[in-house]
Amino acid sequence: MVLWTRLALDPLADTGLGGMPGRRYEVQWQVAKDERFRRVVRAGSATADPRGAHSVHVEVGGLRAGTEYFYRFRVQGHLSPVGRTTTTPARGLSQGLTMCFASCAHFGEGFFTAYRRLAQDQPDLVLHLGDYQYEYAAKAADVRTVVGPETRTLAGYRQRHAQYKTDPDLQLAHATAPWLVVWDDHETENNWADDVPEAPDPAFLDRRAAAFQAYYENMPLRRSARPQGIDMRLYRRFNWGDLATFHMLDTRQYRDDQACGDGTKIDCADRLDPSRTILGDQQEAWLLDGFRRSRARWDVLGQQVFFAQRDLTAGPQQGFSMDGWDGYRANRDRIAAALGQVRNGVVLTGDVHRHWAGEIKENADRPDSRGVGVELVATSVTSSGDGNEGTNSTQLAENPHLKFYKNRRGYVRTTFTAGELRSDFRILPYVRTPDAPVSTAASFVTPDRDPSLHPA
């Protein structure tokens, strides 16, 4: 378990250092079995160092498996709000899991009500699949003002993360349950690929290093994830007893540049090149080895971009996004084949600012071929604004393996048991004003050993 906090007297200070003096502070922490801290079971102190923008990452061991706990911090007489967390069940147990996942939260394009509604669902676990924050400067159409210019420096990224962390809805979601996080592109810049920026930029690697450092400082990550210059290992594995194994992927840091100049392309031969990779050789080998060793009931990929084939062009021609797995066909085929060998394969996705649900096929060009898993795609928290009631009937018709689409903001709530996976696609009617209600647009059940989506 990792407990996170950061000290900041003036969170939006231009220096990115939160208005803090340039010295270390000892931060006391406590973990208790009750919200009033009458039964404290672990306690200690950690150093908040100015070199890490006074962030604190506490790795707590020795707790009981499958148990709810509460935590708080204290420094120089100041007491933090109380957070709730839970430990994973012991191996050998298949204790049920309620998990919500979300992505794509642009501060300027809406209010983070979806995070509050997510917290009200009281999940055991939250997954964030990327675009936790956006690099862009403020736009005239924004409903909230983003501080600072487009983020390019360590100070800028720190300031932007700090602004996000001041949001009360996001604070509530973090305080409700443990989070597993991975980035997408906007934590650094749009559609970057390994050492290749979206547009030529000789300072890109410096920008990447700054973005990685600020991301680590502001997320509940273990010390082993601390970046080393332009490198930061974010992919990792997480077990929920014997019920589920989460394979958290990084589809940005090791990928080849997008084929055919990025965007949506028809007849792009380069996307079929078997040497092209979205994961990199080392991460792919790690993932395939994890599949081979897995004894979990559900193997879950927490990742960023659309995995299943998605033809974006009406008619006989096929057009595909070069940024998603369609732009890395051979790599996708290898992972899909391995996914078909586990008991139940599930892919969780963000990025596209829409809800989708689909069935992953053994042969991407044959919708009637054997299913190897299901893909659940979460819409954005705010990005792209309120959305609309469009049905996208053309894309659904072109892709019969895709079963559901919704262009509203929200998140996905999942419930894992030994017998089935239930997915509830939660939506808000608006985000450009605060406090929207939440409802469920659609629900699906995936039974054990049945890689398909059944309306619930």
TrEMBL record:
Residues 100-425 form the PhoD-like phosphatase metallophosphatase domain. Keywords: Hydrolase. Its EC number is 3.1.3.1. The keyword Hydrolase applies. InterPro entries: Metallo-depent_PP-like (IPR029052), PhoD-like_MPP (IPR018946), PhoD-like_sf (IPR038607), PhoD_N (IPR032093), Phospholipid_Metab_Enz (IPR052900). CDD domains: MPP_PhoD. The keyword Glycoprotein does not apply. One of its GO terms (molecular function) is alkaline phosphatase activity. Residues 1-87 form the Phospholipase D N-terminal domain. SUPFAM superfamilies: Metallo-dependent phosphatases (SSF56300). This is Alkaline phosphatase D.
